[in-house]
Each structure stands twice: as structure tokens, then as C-alpha cells.
Specification:
Helices cover 29% and strands 29% of the residues. The protein has 252 residues and is of the alpha/beta class. The chain folds into two domains: 161 residues, P-loop containing nucleotide triphosphate hydrolases (Rossmann fold, 3-Layer(aba) Sandwich); 71 residues, no CATH class. The strands form three sheets. The protein has a six-stranded mixed beta sheet, sandwiched between helices. It has a three-stranded antiparallel beta sheet with strand order 2-1-4, with helices on one face. A two-stranded antiparallel ribbon has the order 10-11. Strand 6, helix 6 and strand 7 form a beta-alpha-beta unit. Helix 2 packs parallel to helix 5. It is globular. The two termini are 36 Å apart. The C terminus is likely disordered. The chain binds adenosine-5'-triphosphate (ATP). The site of adenosine-5'-triphosphate (ATP) has 11 residues, from strand 2 and helix 1. Belongs to the ABC transporter superfamily. It comes from Williamwhitmania taraxaci. Pfam families: ABC_tran (PF00005).
Length: 252
């Protein structure tokens, strides 16, 4: 039976006087792999912040049922790379280990086992050789991988990824999605992406966010559905793989 991890009920959310999201209802269950699509400024990141508890609902509720354990963190979060301060003087390995702090409080000592798991995950994502570099020395794709390792290190119950493929190259992108598919066997995943073509091949369900949330109970998106939800797309060809991209929505 599916266990609910997070329940968002009739929630509205925003910043100050500005209400961005209206009447949001979504339950995130264990083993879910939810893809979130929508136009720029539609409120995708705001929805993630609401689910993460970084902002409180103005109306309605967000109930977090996750009980972290010694072996598992609650939520791992990969923010948009553009929000990361690359001037912060921290090495890649320390970024990854900092992913253990939220579950165990601030600390600067980590066990041998924890360091070994950090190294193993850096190997898996192909950036082990950069472990002692500072984050300012990394490319966008390498930085994204370092923060992905940070999100994964606590073996969380829920992994939240905000556009994880913005800077990664084609080869790692495929590896990334295969990795996500593998880890989805033991944790739920919510992933924001503009790459609908790829997202539909990997996620189990799709949510479209444009100030409101439209939850498609499948991983296919048809032109009909997008019309109903005022979520128009344009089909383009990118290399040999057809991709779909969002055009700007009209406001609702
Ligand atoms: N910290 C903030 N304070 C005030 N307004 C904000 C803040 N963060 C986002 N907004 C506004 O909220 C709206 C939704 O932003 P959000 O980042 O959630 O959209 P998004 O769908 O993730 O967009 P994108 O695809 O461009 O990342 C935008 O109009 C944005 O300007």
C-alpha cells in the first residue's frame, strides 16, 4: 500500500502580499516519481518550497508525515544551480557531506563511513576527481552533480530536484535519469524540468503548475490535455531526439 509522505491540502502560497499558488492539492507517496512542468514564473519552485516547508501556506495545510531515522534523512533537495553562491569557499567533498547536517545538526566532523559514502556517490556521478576543488572551480554541470550528491548523501525518503539537467551534458543526462530510476526504487522523487520529452520517458506522473496545479495521473502528455490546462507546447527537434518545450502560458 502507498504511504503518504507529504500532503498538501487546499493550499495557497506566495511571498508577502503576492499570492502565487492557488488551491493546491497534491499527495506525495513513497515511490512516486512526479515530474513538474509549467511555464517560467508559473510557480514550480514556489511549490517545491511549499512542499519543503521553506514557506508556509497562506491558506490550507502542508502535512509532513516523514519520520527521518538514523540511517535515512527526510528530504534531499537540489536547488536551481543559479541560486547557488559559487564564491562560497567550500570544497566539493564538504558540500556533499553538508547534506548530512540537516538531519544531524551543524557539525564539522564526519565518520570514515560517511566520508566513504560521499566518495562513492562522487564516483557514481563522475566527479570524484574534483572532490578537493572549491565549487567556484567547477563548471555548471559539475556543480549540479556536486549538489545532487549533497541531496542524496542522507539517503532521504524524498528527493526534490529543481531542473537537475540545466547544465549537464547529453551523456551524463542519460546517466542521471538512469540513476534516478534506480534510486526511485527506494525513495520518492519530485523533479521540475522544462525538458518534457525526457521527463515523460522517466517519471510516473506529471503535474503542470501555472499558478494552479493540474495533476495528470499518467506520464503522457497529449495536446488535448495541454489545451484543457492552458499549457500549450511546441514540438521541436533537438539533435536526433525530439523534444517538446513550453511556450508561455496565458495567466489564469
Ligand atoms: N522570493 C521571492 N519573493 C517574491 N516573489 C518571488 C520570490 N520567488 C519567486 N517569486 C515570484 O513568484 C513567481 C513564481 O516564481 P517561481 O520561481 O516559483 O516560478 P517557476 O515556475 O519556478 O519559474 P522558472 O521556470 O522561471 O524557474 C514569479 O512571479 C516570481 O517572480
Amino acid at each position: 500500500m502507498k504511504e503518504p509522505l507529504i500532503e498538501v491540502k487546499n493550499a495557497s502560497a506566495g511571498y508577502g502580499d503576492s499570492v502565487i499558488l492557488h488551491n493546491i492539492n497534491i499527495t506525495v507517496n513513497d515511490n512516486d516519481f512526479i515530474g513538474i512542468i509549467g511555464p517560467n514564473g508559473g510557480g514550480k519552485t514556489t511549490l517545491l518550497k511549499l512542499i519543503l516547508g521553506q514557506i508556509s501556506p497562506i491558506e490550507g495545510s502542508v502535512i509532513n508525515h516523514i519520520q527521518p531515522t538514523k540511517l535515512r534523512g527526510a528530504v534531499g533537495y537540489l536547488p536551481q544551480v543559479s541560486t547557488i553562491d559559487r564564491k562560497f569557499p567550500i570544497t566539493v567533498i564538504d558540500v556533499v557531506l553538508s547534506g548530512l547536517m540537516s538531519s544531524k545538526g551543524m557539525r564539522n566532523r564526519f565518520s570514515k563511513l560517511e566520508k566513504e559514502s560521499a566518495e562513492a556517490i562522487l564516483r557514481k556521478t563522475g566527479i570524484y576527481d574534483y572532490r578537493n576543488k572549491t565549487i567556484g572551480e567547477l563548471s555548471g554541470g559539475q556543480l549540479q552533480r556536486a549538489f545532487l550528491c549533497r541531496a542524496l548523501i542522507s539517503n532521504p525518503f524524498l528527493l526534490i530536484l529543481d531542473e537537475p539537467n540545466t547544465f549537464v551534458d547529453n551523456r551524463f543526462e542519460k546517466e542521471l535519469y538512469n540513476l534516478l530510476r534506480e534510486i526511485n526504487e527506494r525513495m520518492a522523487i519530485i523533479m521540475v524540468s522544462h525538458d518534457i520529452g525526457t521527463i515523460t520517458s522517466y517519471v510516473k506522473t506529471i503535474a503542470c503548475v501555472n499558478r494552479q496545479l493540474h495533476y495528470h495521473n499518467s506520464n503522457t502528455i497529449t495536446q488535448e490535455q495541454l489545451k484543457v490546462y492552458d499549457c500549450p507546447i511546441q514540438l521541436i527537434t533537438h539533435g536526433q531526439v525530439p523534444h517538446t518545450v513550453l511556450k508561455t502560458h496565458t495567466q489564469q
